[in-house]
Every structure is written in C-alpha cells, then in structure tokens.
Amino acid sequence: MVPEKQWRDKGDMMDKRTARKVHGADFRAVISQLRRDLASPKNQEHSDDDGPESSSELGGMQVFIRKRPMLAHEPKKKEYDVVSCAGNRTIVVHDCQMYADMKRKFIDSHVHTFSKVFSETATTDDVFDHVAKPLVGHAIAGGKSVIMMYGQTGSGKTHTMSGLHEHMADMLFPTNNKATSSQIVVVTAVEIAGAKCVDLLRRRQKVLVCDDEAGNSRLLNVVERDVSSAAALLSTIQDALDMRATEATAVNAVSSRSHFLCSITIKDAASSSSSHSRSSLKQPPRPSGGVLTLLDLAGSERNEDSFHHSADRRRETIEINSSHLALKQCVRALGTEDANGFVPYRQSILTQLLKHSLWAKGSRAAVIATVSPIATGTYVR
User: Fold this and answer.
1) What's the pLDDT at 8?
2) Of 72, 104, 120, which marks where a domain is finished?
3) Residue 157 annotated as binding site
4) pLDDT tens for residues 284-298?
5) Would the annotation count 279 as a binding residue?
6) Is 42 annotated for ligand binding?
C-alpha cells in the first residue's frame, strides 16, 4: 500500500533522533508524496473506510486512535508530522531512518488498522460520540463498561481524558445536571503503582486488595463517595487526580507515573442507603447497578527519554511497563479463547481489579490510544 522510498545524501555521523531533524526537509518531501499516494483513487478503492462503526454494535474490546495536532512550538524545534490517517480506520507511521553509515536515508512506512482513527482535525466531541457515549449508555442501562486511556507522554492523553469526563458527567446527570430521585451515583478512585494501591479520595491511604467469595479482587478500606450532580462528579474526579503521583519527564512537565482507576457505579436508590462519603472497612457487597470504569494508564516513555533517570525512576518505569505487559497478555489470552480458559489475571494488581468488570459477561470496553505526530517521537519495534 505504501511504497518504500530511499535516496542518498551526504551527512555527518549523528544519532538517529538528531538525523531526523537535520534531514527533515528531505523526509518531509517524501512524506508529502506518500500522502498523495495514499489519497489517490487507486488506494481509496482498497481502503477499509466503509464508514464509522459504533462500539455498541460490535461489543467486546475495540481500540481507537486519536492523533494530536502539531503544537505551535514544534516546527520551531524542527519537528514535523510523520503520522498519516488514511480513511476511517487506518493509520500510517512514516518511520524516518538512517542506514548504518548515517548518510543514506530511507522511510519505512508501517500501516496499522484499528476500530477507528481520529485525525488531528477531530474534536473531543467526535471521540465521545463515537467511543464513550455508547459505553456510558451501557452502564446507565445496568451493564459494565470500561474506557481505557493509553498514550506516550506528551501525546495529548490528559487533554482527551479531561474532555471526556465533562461529557460523561453531563450524560450521567441529564436532568438539569442532577441525579434523578431513583438514582444514586457512587465514585471510588485509586492509584496503582506496581504492587501498591492507594485511595485518592482519602489522602493516599493504603488500600487492601483481596478476593471475595466469587474469586473477584475487591478493594477494602476504600472511600465510596456519593455524587448527585455533574459538577459534584467532576469535582470528585478532579480531587482524585490532584492526589495522583506525577513527575516531570524529558517530554512533559507533568507526567502521570501511575495508573488511575476510577469506578462510577449507578445504583437504584430503592436498594441503596445514601451518605456523602463512606469508607468500606468490611467486604463490600457486589454492586447491583451498572458500572463505568475509567482507567488512565501511566504515560509510557521511550528508552531514550529514561536514559538519565535515577535508579528509583528506572525501577518505576520497569513497574509501569510490566503492568502494561500484564494487561496486554490478559487481553490477548482472552481474545485467543484458549481451550483451558486461562487468563493470567494474577500477574498484576491492575489486571486483578479489572477482572470483574473488563471480562465480565456482557461487559463492553474500549481503548483510546493517543498518538504524537512528531518525528522524534516515532518508535516502531
């Protein structure tokens, strides 16, 4: 679909990230031609662009891509766009490379297909309507829905997540942004970092994770906060995010160094007792209503960006990558429908806590992966 382009040029020895900038004009020219080829009628005939598909129609887990636009300061740093969106479902990453002699250049274009791709012109409204809205509706109807955010540091993950929160709150509280008399909305929010789990609504107090009689992992000693309006829900989520561990990285001044797991349970008021905030010191009963789980995965980093990290930061990065791997292995194991039905949930606390929602019967899930367009952010295995 995308031809390889290569050519010769003289140049000094340099690292590959610097080379991408130094030879940016050459790379940009070839990428422009590749984009014209992608837009040609011949390629459009074989495009997978058959119109948008609703996550509520497909069920199971889907993966969506959102490409962020170039930022105003990036061209000044000789950055350029190496990610192309082809149709509704295809993304092409133009990996700008140098041969071993660091003089000859080539572009290796990688084509990936997803449930849907949102280009840099898409709005957060577009993302919500297509991805999150069906899942929120499923939770309101009594089902279990999971929305996961994943992205490299600096890819626009936080921007997308905050916008989705506002739309979700408005949808959960449609009557003048307040709950109906028959509805109770309960929120819990925890941070997971390696083997540690803390309550973000109780000033980072340690939370115990244990199994209930059904074999599902549950949080003990976690605060459950009742919310009765869209404003109260957003305030609660922000309170939790303010307590989340962040740290400056080489890419972003404020990067999340942990996983944020927020559970929003929609209960029937007739079967629940309400209080503003309570701590579940004993084993909590299984929620009787719908559950919307929001998972913001820790920002991933390239190996080059962690080169100057301290020993503690490197260990932290290893823990983050290990939990990402555990989640990926669980999803893959479930997708292959192993004859033994074995899914390795026990590999991390994150996957243990997701078991009763992400892999429950009738649950629906989506991953929104945010992508940076810049050349120095490209890393293709």
Assistant:
1) 44
2) 120
3) yes
4) 444 568 999 999 998
5) no
6) no
